[in-house]
Amino acid sequence: MMKNIVFDLGRVLVDFDPIAYLYSLGYDDETVQALYDRIFGGEDWMRHDRGDYPSVIEMQTVLIQKYPEYEAQIRRALQPDWVKIHTLREDTAAYLLELKERGYPVYMLSNLAADSYAYVSRYPFFRALDGGVFSYQERVCKPDARIYEILLQRYALDPAETVFLDDNADNVEAAEKAGIRGIVFTSLDEAKKQLEPLLSDTCN
Questions:
Q1: Whole-prediction pTM value?
Q2: 42 pLDDT exceeds 70?
Q3: Is 202's pLDDT higher than 80?
Q4: Of 2, 28, 33, 86, which has fewest CB within 10 angstroms of its CB?
Q5: CA-to-CA separations, 131 to 37, 105, 154, 165, in angstroms, rounded
Q6: pLDDT digits (tens, 9 = 90+) for 96-153
Q7: What contacts 24+ positions apart, CB below 8 Å, involve 167-175?
Q8: How would you write the chain as a 3-class SS string?
Q9: Percent of the chain having pLDDT more than 70?
């Protein structure tokens, strides 16, 4: 039976939809795709999550140097308040709190930049966490094996008693290679169907 439950953040506990965000700025299909590829879909976004850029403004400067033809659009998309793209998924957050009340330690493992962390960590469910590992602090991102080892070692978790929910199949596969049980998160209902049979409410 699983005793420790680890949640990803984006698209699990908070919604994160860059495409919808770019459309909300009024751009057409071609511009949205071009901006997505250059901002969110490239190596610089991973570097942002990894903490190479202290804030999105530093990444903005690099991207403008690379893609000067999109300078105005990049500046508009990467204003400091871009973090409002992270919106709470109330159903999953409520389930995390329910699991905590049932006696399960709950953790977070997320690729997350510093400015995103500063915004989302104000959500109340963060106060229920027994621990968390975030890429910008560790300077390593999922699915690198090192970030899973950091989680297991820091909180003395037995991987055979630990389950991880993430929307990214590659991240789940990497967790399973570390001995952690993985669930690919597609919806809360589907996640609960897979998770609940693994739990025993005698853990506390």
A1: 0.95
A2: yes
A3: no
A4: 28
A5: 33, 9, 9, 15
A6: 999 999 999 999 999 999 999 999 999 999 999 999 999 999 999 999 999 999 999 9
A7: 167/8, 167/10, 167/11, 167/12, 168/8, 168/142, 168/143, 170/142, 170/143, 171/8, 171/142, 171/143, 173/143, 174/142, 174/143, 174/144, 174/145, 174/148, 175/148
A8: CECEEEECCECCCEECCHHHHHHHCCCCHHHHHHHHHHHHCCHHHHHHHCCCCCCHHHHHHHHHHHCHHHHHHHHHHCCHHHHHHCEECHHHHHHHHHHHHCCCCEEEEECCCHHHHHHHCCCHHHHHCCEEEEHHHHCCCCCCHHHHHHHHHHCCCCHHHEEEEECCHHHHHHHHHCCCEEEECCCHHHHHHHHHHHECCCCC
A9: 98
Phi, psi of 192, rounded to the nearest 5 degrees: -65, -35
CA distances 178 to 1, 86, 135, 149, 162, Å, are 17, 29, 17, 7, 11
Q: What CATH superfamily is the domain 4-15+86-198? A: HAD superfamily/HAD-like (3.40.50.1000)
pLDDT at 27 over 60: yes
